[in-house]
Amino acid sequence: MKSLISVAKTREAQVSNEQVLEEMQDFLRALESYPARFASDPTITFEQYRSNLIPVAKAKSAAA
């Protein structure tokens, strides 16, 4: 029984790690592409830009 619980916890930690890595990659992509976006629209903040990218990134990962 303990081994089943251990496997479940390990899988849960793995899923959590994958989610964190995905969020980090999304942030880095936003950081890399923000200067070009800012050049075309200097009024947009990084946070606004990043928050607009999150639904797009989630839709792409759901389609994959």
Describe the 3D structure.
The longest helix has 39 residues, at 2-40. Helices cover 89% and strands 0% of the residues. The relative contact order is 0.09. It has helices at residues 2-40, 46-63. It has 2 helices and no strands. The termini are far apart. The chain is mainly alpha-helical.
Secondary-structure blueprint of this entry?
Layout: H1 2-40, H2 46-63
| SS class | mainly alpha
Give helix % range: over 70%
Our Rg estimate from Cα atoms comes to 17 Å
H/E element string? HH
Number of H/I helices: 2
**Tally of structural domains:** 1
Oligomer: single chain
Q: Kindly, what is the distance between the CA atoms of the first and last residues, rounded to a whole number of angstroms?
A: 35 Å
- Beta content comes to under 5%
- The global form is elongated
Spans of 5+ residues with little confidence (pLDDT < 50)? Answer: none
Count of distinct strands: 0
Key features?
single chain; 64 residues; mainly alpha; 2 helices
Summarize the structure.
With 64 residues, the protein is mainly alpha-helical. It has one domain.
